[in-house]
What does this fold into?
Amino acid sequence: MLQKLFNMLKFIPHLDWEYHGSACNFSKELITDLRRPDGNETYTKLHPSGWKITGQVREDHYRWVQEIEARHAEYGVVKGNFEKEVFASSQKAFDHFIENHPPRNWDYGDI
It folds into this structure.
């Protein structure tokens, strides 16, 4: 369900992308190539897809990225927490990001 908010489109889990389980986030490799990045540190990584993605590594017996901000020279911005809400500068930006960097679905109980 799209909502326009401050020139950004708002996307909702379960409605705008597949989301099942209790977690919908990204692996640490989305934002860093470090084997053991420091938990609670912010990292940025440029991908071959053109997306420059920034986020903070979360750590609790496992490392993941909960909230991101991604920028692309052609498509614009995608940012947010994929368990709650995500904002994008356009539908094309959201679609291109999801196509190239889909979030992972898993269960926090598996940690």
Q: What stands out?
A: Residues 1-6 have pLDDT under 50 and may be disordered. The first helix runs from residue 91 to 100. The beta strands are 3-5, 8-11, 23-27, 42-46, 52-59, 63-72, 76-81, 85-88, 104-106.
